[in-house]
Structure formats: structure tokens, C-alpha cells
Design a protein that fits this description.
The complex is a heterodimer.
Chain A (H helix, E strand, L loop, with lengths): L4 E5 L10 H15 L7 E4 L3 E5 L5 H8 L5 E10 L3 H15 L5 E8 L8 H15 L4 E2 L6 E7 L4 E4 L3 E5 L8 E5 L5 H11 L3 E8 L6 H18 L2 E7 L1 H10 L2 H23 L4 E2 L12 H8 L6 E2 L7 H10 L3 H4 L6 H4 L11 H8 L4 H10 L2 E5 L14
Parallel strand pairs in A: 5-6, 5-7, 10-11, 10-13, 11-12, 13-14
Antiparallel strand pairs in A: 1-3, 1-4, 2-3, 4-8, 4-9, 7-8, 12-15
Chain B lengths: L1 E2 L10 H13 L9 H20 L7 E4 L2 H15 L6 E5 L4 H12 L3 E5 L9 H7 L4 E5 L13 H8 L6 E5 L18 E5 L10 E5 L25 H36 L5 E3 L10 E6 L4 H10 L2 E2 L5 H4 L6 H5 L4 H5 L1 E5 L6 H22 L1
Parallel strand pairs in B: 1-11, 3-4, 3-5, 5-6, 6-7
Antiparallel strand pairs in B: 2-8, 7-8, 9-10, 10-12
Classes of the chains: A alpha/beta, B alpha/beta.
Chain lengths: 401, 380
């Protein structure tokens, strides 16, 4: 007997009270996007759980896709059976058989929501446990630590049976917590910061600073590739590319070298904040990691953060670099991030940037030039791309492949 | 023309040649160049890699482009043996491998490695028990081809993979050159670590192939230089070849449902009709053989002469594999199967593509029957 549906359990959503419907709708949308390659499936969302009806598509491949979706606590491939004892016996036996290897143990975990069902829980245990024991020679019962745990759920409309419980990605469905801007540099940290924020349900738009000819087309490609990876989570993502050459050149001319980094960061934040207003987002996400580089000391953050009172989210602030790298590898952004192309931060980097910049000093230095109009110009000339995951990107070379 | 020698090489798809020409002339940049032309070439290469990977159900980072099957086999075997020699110096291969596998192993033997040849049964099939019995404490690599190129026998790759999953220190290389488009590769399910494919065997162009290297498996490169292909295969990438290969693979797999059905029909017809010919023995096993290869021997007929007789009628097939037919040695595979010397000496191989049909098969059957009769008269 083959699995005909996958049961999805919501986890945290279930505790969200009156907002639950909104959360379930968002999750349903995420599931639909992730399962687009499987046209025959049907999604049925209910109050406590969601079902994906497989309709002949590949169950293992579907599970693989579902495992990456935020908002899913766990999932189980399952079969639906009518409330007929003989049918149920047959299904229970074939499920256990399909997983059983010699010497394994099993137990039955019944759950009877429909109290009108003829058998009570111990009756279910007895009937189906006995049937399995009688038909699989050598199998033993172990209620404490079974190899196979056959769940039989008796609901009003039918019986559901499943044996496997697969852990989901957890978190909240993307889009259920509003929208924020991610400053995406091309390094290892910022995609991971974006990933963590999305995991808590935040929809993100990315902002990248591009300084041709100091940075090449390839560094832009790299950021687009990173955005494609992140876009897999939500189906698509906006990427704002800010022309930053003039500002960087002007900073180099106007600001003492050891303060140029601080000023650069302040302007990046101001520009991102302007774009955030236009896009009606509520926060800015950075890959800042305390003490990693000169711009990420507390003193620097204090001097840089002064330009806005928009919430700045720094999900990686207290993490160790090795842990960040581990996540980057898991989400497939690491190999893209380590491509060796200059980005706008590395090219103008001063030889000894201030690790403890003073807020008053940086404001003083910036006061000698009309940077505001440069910033407005950069915001106006920002190019906005809608990035889709690789599989959906229509290719300029399509006829060649 | 009736071309029945598709295991030697296939006629490239026109679409693959078109892609090759267009990429060669319009997107000729070096993928490593910093400028836009380089970026464009790199994008093409990346897309080719992604497409090949997705058609083989593996990750793009597990596909390394090479110059073809021979290079892929050399890289897989020597590259892993050299890097892992401190873990052990024992290698296992079947006795019916392609010369590029056998030759790589023999070369390693001269460098102090120990090699074990696995026997085959009379169908030309390796036994999993023999693999198990050959494993030593210092074994680091097992190499078994998926489909034999001379008789078409399908090897028990899944079962060997299952066995080897109990030996995490042993790498499993599968030469899948003859398998692409004919039998499912199932690289992941079969616990394959390394697998070679070659584009010109599925209507791509010569000089292009790839090696699948499972994530986490490490090799030493054979070619040193500019560190292309993640340092595993230096040398400016053959972007046009890779794109043409991706296209040929897509078309092959896309056509495979109908193609395989037709191929099996043609093969069955050939098998049934040819086996009625006096003195003709079919060497290809009935069960578990690839749908495109049929090997047979005709007692008392010198193979080479019949090949030329058929050629005069516009029919192209071969004696054994293209690689060993020039040496005029009897087929290693047939000898390993226990076919007597004289029959091994008069062996023929028909190898089909999706495009061959039953009409062609009928003509070939008649031509072989007539040719054999005539030659026997002259030669006896």
C-alpha cells in the first residue's frame, strides 16, 4: 500500500490564537510555491494540520521540498483508510511490513478523536497489534523504545495511519511577520542573517551596493546568485542594486582615511533606510557579528546606527564565525559567498580603520560636503530586480540548452 | 545507410551541433576572464552543469566536466588511488571493464598497488559475493561498469552499492558510459561515489564528458594548471562541448520513453531472427542486458570479413568494441564469460540508437544470413 498523503503539523502557529488563520494561509502559500514542480498534488489546510494529497507524485521528493519550509514542525507520510476494520488491518500490516527489517520492534499509538468509533484505544492496540504480530514472524512489541511507531488516528471523517515522523524546518511561515530590508554584501554572513530572519516569518527585500568599475559584473552576479538561493524560500525576492561609485569616491576625497569606513557604513544605512520607506518595510537586517571587523565593534555600531531609529536586526550578532559558516553550508550559500570577487566594502578598505570611532567626529567630517543630494541621487537611480529561484528563471540562452 | 554501431559512437543530434557552433562562435570567452565575455561563458558553463546534474538527479557541484569517458575513468581511478594510498593500496575491478579502467589499474599496479579482477558468470555478470570475498582491510576502490560495452550485460550496481555501504573507506566507481539513456543510473540510491559518462555515446560531441564525484569524496587531479573545475581538472573549459552535452542529455532523456520501447522491439526482433541462422550463437544474455547491445558469434566466419561485406551494403556494425577491434584480439568480455576462443574470435556487436527501426533490422538480418552463407562457402 502506498502513501497517498503527507500530513503537516504546524508547531508554533497553533499557539497564535486569533491570527492563526493568517498564519495557515501564509504557510499554504509557501507550500504551494515549494511544490510547484508537482502539478498533480492538492493541498488541504485545516485548523490543526495540513494535508498534501500526493496523487501519484513522488512522495520522497515532496518530503524533501517540504522539509525546507518554515512554519512546519513535523510531517508524516500517511494513508487514509475508511472506518472498516478489515481495510484498516490490511493497511496497518502493509505499512509496518514496508519498514520492517528483521529483529525490529513496534508499537501502536492510537489517537481517538472520534469517540463514536467502535474500538477504544486499547481495543485498537489489541486488534491491530495482534494482526501484525500474527502476520510478521519475529516482530516484537516494545512500547518504550520501538523501531516502528504506527500511529492510528481516528477522526470523524476517516482513519489516518502513519509510521514516520520527519522533523520540519520549524519557525514561522514566511510573510507572517511583515517585511524587512536585508543588506546583502556578497559575503558569508549576510545571506545567513537573511535566512534566520525569514525563519521567523519575515519577508525580505535585499539591498546591494554596487561600485563599478571598482567592483565587477561578477560581484553583481554573485549577489544575484545569493538572492536566488534566498528566493527559494518564498518563491521570489526583490533585489535593489544601489549605484555607489560616486559616493565612495567622494568619501575618499572628503573624509579622513581612518573614518572613511564609518562614514561609508552610515551612508549605506541611510540609503537602505530610504529604500525601506519606499518599500514600506519595518526593519533593516545586517550580517553584523560583534567584533568580527572594525565596523562591527560596539563603538562602530553606536556611531553608525545614529543615522536612523529604524530597528536594525542583527541575527548573527553573538554567533561564532564557525557556526555561521556551518549554516551557510547548510543553506547552500557558502560556495557562492567565497567566490573571490571584490565587493564595495573590500575595495576601498582603509589600511587602519578606526575600531572605536567617535560619533561627534564622524558627524563633523561629514558636515563639510553636501552628501544628502548624493544619497538622494543614489536612491533614485537604484535598480530593482525581481529574483526567482534558478529553476524558474527563464534563460537568455534557452535555445542553446 | 544503416548505422548499428552506436556503442562505438552515435551521430550527434543536429541541435547539439548547432549549440556547439553557436557557443563556439558567439560566446567564445574564457570562463575565467574577468570581463563580460568571460562572465557570459561562465554562465553558460554553470547552466550546462546545472542541467546535467538535474538530469542525473545529483547536485551541480558534483559534476566535473572532462574530455570524455576515458579521462573520467582515469581521473576517478588514479585520482582516488593516489590521494588515498595511505589508507590502503588494494583496488578491485571486474574482468570486463573498459580498457581505460583496466589500463589505469594496471598502471597503478606498476606503482605498487595491488589489484583484484572479479570473475563473471557465463552471462558476463559480476557476482556480489565475489566482490565481498575480494574485499581486504586495505581495499580503497571498487570499479564496476554499469553496462558492459561488448555484450550489454547490466551489472548488479545496486547490490554492490548496498554491500559497499558497510565499508565507508571504499570508494565505488561506476563507468556508466554505455548506460546513459538506456538504464537508470540512480547514482544516489546505488551509493555510487564516482561515475563516468561520455557525451558522444548519447548524440553529443566527442571530447566532452563528465565525472560525477559525490559530495565529500576527494580526489587528486591528474592535470595541473589553472585550477578549473574546483581544482580537479585544470585546462580552459570546453564550454561549447559542455553546452552541447547538456542539450544532448536533455534530448536523450526526454526521448527515452518512446526510444527505449522501440529499441527493445528492434533488439527482440534481431535476437529472435538472428538466432535462427545456422551456426549463430547469441552471446548477450536474455535477461538483465541493456536494450541497445546484441552480441553474437557465427561459427566458421571471420568477423572482419563479414563486417566489410556488410559495409558494401551500407550496413555498419562492429566486431567487438571499437577500442579492442583494432588490436584484433578476441574480446576480453567474451573470454571472461567462458565463450570458446573460436567463437570469441568470430564475434559481432550490434548496438542501437533510439532512431533505429524494425525495417532496418529486417534488412540487416537478411544481409547477415546471406553474407555468412557466402563466406562459409568461400572459406571452407
Amino acid at each position: 500500500m502506498n502513501y497517498d498523503r503527507i500530513l503537516i503539523r504546524y508547531g508554533e502557529i497553533s499557539t497564535k490564537g486569533r491570527n492563526r488563520k493568517k498564519f495557515v494561509d501564509k504557510l499554504r502559500k509557501s507550500v504551494r510555491i515549494a511544490l510547484a514542480p508537482f502539478p498533480k498534488i492538492k493541498i488541504r489546510a485545516e485548523r490543526d494540520r495540513m494535508y498534501v494529497l500526493v496523487n501519484g507524485e513522488n512522495v520522497q521528493e515532496i518530503i524533501k521540498s517540504l522539509k525546507n519550509i518554515f512554519g512546519i514542525q513535523s510531517l508524516s507520510p500517511a494513508i487514509r483508510v475508511e472506518k472498516d476494520i478489515e481495510q484498516m488491518k490490511e493497511a496497518a500490516l502493509s505499512l509496518v511490513k514496508s519498514l520492517y527489517t528483521e529483529g525490529q520492534t513496534f508499537k501502536i499509538s492510537p489517537k481517538r478523536s472520534d469517540k463514536s468509533f467502535g474500538l477504544d484505544t486499547s481495543g485498537i492496540n489489541h486488534t491491530f497489534g495482534g494482526h501484525i504480530l500474527g502476520n510478521i514472524p519475529g516482530i516484537k512489541v516494545d512500547v518504550k523504545n520501538p523501531d516502528i511507531n504506527l500511529k492510528i488516528e481516528v477522526l470523524a471523517e476517516a482513519i489516518y495511519m502513519s509510521c514516520e515522523n520527519i522533523l520540519g524546518a520549524g519557525g514561522l511561515p514566511v510573510g507572517s511577520s511583515g517585511k524587512a530590508m536585508l543588506m546583502l554584501s556578497g559575503g558569508i554572513d549576510s545571506p545567513v542573517a537573511g535566512y534566520f530572519t525569514m525563519k521567523r516569518g519575515v519577508e525580505i527585500e535585499a539591498v546591494h551596493f554596487f561600485s563599478p568599475p571598482y567592483t565587477s559584473e561578477r560581484s553583481k552576479e554573485k549577489v544575484i546568485d545569493l538572492a536566488k538561493k534566498l528566493a527559494e524560500i518564498f518563491g521570489s525576492m526583490k533585489l535593489h542594486i544601489v549605484p555607489f561609485t560616486t559616493i565612495q569616491q567622494t568619501i575618499k576625497e572628503q573624509i579622513p582615511e581612518n573614518y572613511s569606513m564609518t562614514t561609508t557604513r552610515r551612508f549605506m544605512l541611510r540609503i537602505t533606510d530610504e529604500i525601506r520607506k519606499k518599500q514600506e518595510a519595518l526593519a533593516i537586517i545586517t550580517g553584523d557579528n560583534l567584533g568580527q571587523v572594525a565596523s562591527q565593534t560596539l563603538e562602530s555600531m553606536y556611531a553608525i546606527n545614529e543615522v536612523t531609529n529604524t530597528p536594525i536586526l542583527r541575527p548573527l550578532l553573538t554567533m561564532d564565525k564557525n557556526d555561521i559558516i556551518k549554516i551557510a553550508k547548510e543553506i547552500d550559500t557558502y560556495d557562492i559567498s567565497i567566490r573571490p570577487f571584490e565587493d564595495c566594502c573590500t575595495i576601498f578598505v582603509p589600511s587602519s580603520p578606526k575600531t572605536k570611532p567617535k560619533r561627534e567626529k564622524v558627524m563633523h567630517y561629514e558636515s563639510f560636503h553636501d552628501f544628502d543630494s548624493l544619497i538622494q541621487e543614489a536612491v533614485q537611480n537604484t535598480e530593482t530586480l525581481t529574483i526567482r529561484p534558478d529553476s524558474k528563471q527563464s534563460s537568455e540562452f534557452e535555445d542553446l540548452f | 545507410m544503416i548505422y548499428f554501431d552506436n556503442s562505438a559512437t552515435t551521430k550527434p543530434y543536429k541541435e547539439a551541433v548547432d549549440s556547439f557552433v553557436k557557443v563556439s562562435s558567439e560566446f567564445f570567452g574564457n570562463p575565467s576572464s574577468l570581463h563580460g565575455l568571460g562572465v557570459q561563458a561562465e554562465k553558460l558553463l554553470t547552466q550546462a552543469r546545472t542541467q546535467v546534474a538535474s538530469l542525473l538527479a545529483v547536485k551541480p557541484t558534483e559534476i566535473y566536466f572532462t574530455s570524455g569517458g576515458t579521462e573520467s575513468n582515469n581521473l576517478a581511478i588514479k585520482g582516488s588511488a593516489i590521494l588515498h594510498k595511505n589508507k590502503g593500496k588494494h583496488l578491485i575491478l571486474s574482468s570486463i571493464e573498459h580498457p581505460s579502467v583496466r589500463g589505469s589499474m594496471e598502471q597503478l599496479k606498476k606503482l605498487g598497488f595491488e589489484i583484484t579482477y572479479l570473475p563473471t558468470d557465463h552471462h558476463g555478470r559480476v557476482k556480489v559475493e565475489d566482490v565481498k570475498a575480494s574485499i581486504q582491510k586495505n581495499t580503497i576502490l571498487v570499479s564496476v561498469m554499469q553496462v558492459n560495452n561488448e555484450v550489454g550485460t547490466i551489472q548488479p550496481i545496486k547490490e554492490i552499492g548496498e554491500l559497499l555501504s558497510q565499508y565507508p573507506n571504499i570508494l565505488f566507481h561506476v563507468d556508466a558510459v554505455q548506460a546513459v539513456g538506456k538504464v537508470p543510473l540512480n547514482l544516489m540510491e546505488n551509493r555510487v561515489d564516482l561515475s563516468s559518462i561520455s557525451a558522444h555515446k548519447f548524440h553529443g560531441l566527442k571530447g566532452t564528458g563528465s565525472l560525477f564525484i559525490r559530495e565529500g569524496v576527494r580526489l587528486d587531479p591528474l592535470l595541473s594548471g589553472g585550477n578549473q573545475e574546483w581544482k580537479i581538472r585544470s585546462g580552459t573549459e570546453n564550454v561549447a562541448g559542455a553546452v552541447a552535452m547538456a542539450k544532448a542529455l536533455r534530448m536523450t532523456i526526454g526521448n527515452s520513453d518512446l526510444g527505449l520501447e522501440r529499441m527493445s522491439r528492434v533488439k527482440t526482433l534481431l535476437r529472435e531472427e538472428l538466432s535462427r541462422i545456422d551456426g549463430l550463437t547469441i552471446n548477450t544474455p536474455l535477461e538483465n542486458s541493456a536494450p541497445h547491445i546484441l552480441n553474437f558469434s557465427i561459427r566458421g566466419v571471420k568477423a572482419e570479413v563479414l563486417i566489410h561485406t556488410l559495409e558494401q551494403k551500407g550496413i555498419y556494425l562492429s566486431t567487438t568494441s571499437a577500442c579492442s577491434s583494432k588490436k584484433q584480439l578476441p574480446s576480453q568480455t567474451l573470454l571472461a564469460m567462458g565463450v570458446p576462443d573460436d567463437l570469441a574470435d568470430s564475434a559481432f556487436r550490434i548496438s542501437l540508437s533510439y532512431d533505429n527501426n524494425e525495417d532496418e533490422a529486417q534488412k540487416v538480418i537478411v544481409a547477415i544470413e546471406e553474407g555468412a552463407k557466402q563466406l562459409r562457402k568461400v572459406m571452407n
